[in-house]
Amino acid sequence: MDYDVILLGGGLAYTGAELLRNAGLKVAIVEKDPSHLGGVCLHRGCVPTKLYLFEARKAHDLKNSSLLSIKEYDFDLKSLKEKKERLTKSLRDQIERLLKGVDFIYGYGELVEPHVVEVEGKRISAKHIIINTGKSYPLEPNGDHLLALEEVPESLKIAGDDPLALEFACMFALMNCKVELYFEEESLDFMHTSIRGRLLKMLKDMNISLMPLSEAPKENVYWIKRRVPNTKCIKVEISMDALGHIVVDKNYETSLKDHYAVGDVNGIAELAHASRVQALSVAKRIIKGQGFFTPPYKIPYVLYTQPLSYAKVGFTKKELEKKGVEFSEKSVSLRSFAVGSIYHTEEGMAFLYFDKKGFLLGAEVLSRDAGEVIGSLTVSLFSELNLDMLSRLCLPHPTLGEVLFMRI
Questions:
Q1: Same domain, 156 and 207
Q2: Which Gene3D superfamilies does the entry link to (predicted)?
Q3: Burial of 383 per CB tally in 10 Å (0-12, 13-18, 19+)
Q4: Which of 269, 344, 381, 395 has its Cα between 20 and 30 A from that of 29?
């Protein structure tokens, strides 16, 4: 064998490569595009979209400040794009430095035989293969093309069945673009009814025109459809589900022994942080013979709409009702606390769900920076804290995280 481990795809599973290298194993990462090291998250997903969203929110906040007299502003999208490119290059270079000692093999890689990857006609082998090929948009133009724009259009049309369409709609609405969003509101049915209603109201208040996806035009529209797994490079027989995801067990191992699949391609959770944790688990299993499994319900999810965002961890109210689980619900209105006004999030709210013994089953939050707020609830869920223990937590005041525990 040429290597102990080959990673097919250079996304966030590189965290596992670092652990494997530190254990003294010979590791290679096969990545199609040298400029794409770090994956969708770094180049076309989490990092650039959140940079755009938060820069747009800054401008929105200044315009709406009662202390300033700013009526209009022109958003310099070209400068923001240049900032994005500098940031992603810096982070990509940082990954290469971090993984010194790992071989980077650039070119289109295919798993052509068990333990054998072919890259541009050259074959390399490894005892362990980690598939980290991710997903791609099925239609063009899409979010990648939106992030390539250098001027804010006067108007644009966005269509899709992925909730990420809402992020792009908010992004450009905050840049003073007139947005038409073709989206099925039923795609948000997993949310608490009150949160869903408040979120949709926020979109309408931003002058985002909401229309059914079925009415989307054929042309001049950006498609934010749910991504599809990148598995054309898998030329061996491996079990896949009806949507094309690679099926894995609780070790993230595929139907082919010593071949693993992590991240979006396995369909467990289409989230960068899930990919990172899964890769660490596989690395630990290869090194020590024992990894760990993170159940999907324990993986936090954030929808980075702005100015308010949505986050959840554990089970939602809709999921608990569907399961027929007995639970109690505790709600928090951020309007009732000083922090709501301080952070301009009076419209925010949260719902926490507990079992009959007082253990946290799940939580949903709508607030400014909901992704930051959900962190403490994720720790609470992992730690299996009950109501009594949660009520003893002493969190900094005044913060959004604190108020979630002040009503329990």
A1: yes
A2: 3.30.390.30, FAD/NAD(P)-binding domain
A3: exposed
A4: 269
Tokens 């595929």 sit on residue: 254
Count of positions (residues) in the chain: 408
Task: Select from 374, 3, 32 the least CA-distant residue to 233.
Answer: 32
Q: What are phi and psi of 112, to 5 degrees?
A: -95, -25
pLDDT in tens, 13-69: 899 999 999 999 999 999 999 888 999 999 999 999 999 999 999 988 888 777 777
**The residue to which tokens 């003294």 are assigned:** 24
In angstroms, the Cα distances linking 161 to 60, 137, 173, 220, 247 are 27, 12, 19, 17, 23
The H or E element spanning position 275 is helix 272-288
pLDDT in tens, 218-237: 999 999 999 999 999 999 99
Of all residues in the chain, what percent are helix, strand and coil, respectively (each to 5)? Answer: 40, 25, 40
Flag whether 69 is in a domain. Answer: no
The angle that helices 77-98 and 46-63 make with each other, rounded to 10 degrees, is: 140
Structure-block tokens of residue 100: 């010194």
Whether residue 209 contacts residue 177, with contact meaning beta carbons closer than 8 Å, is answered with no
The β-bridge relationship of strands 209-211 and 178-182 is: parallel
Question: Where is the domain boundary, 296, 328, 347?
Answer: 296
CA distance 293 to 277: 9
Specify whether 130 is located in the same domain as 263.
yes
Q: What number of other Cβ atoms are within 10 A of residue 101's Cβ?
A: 11
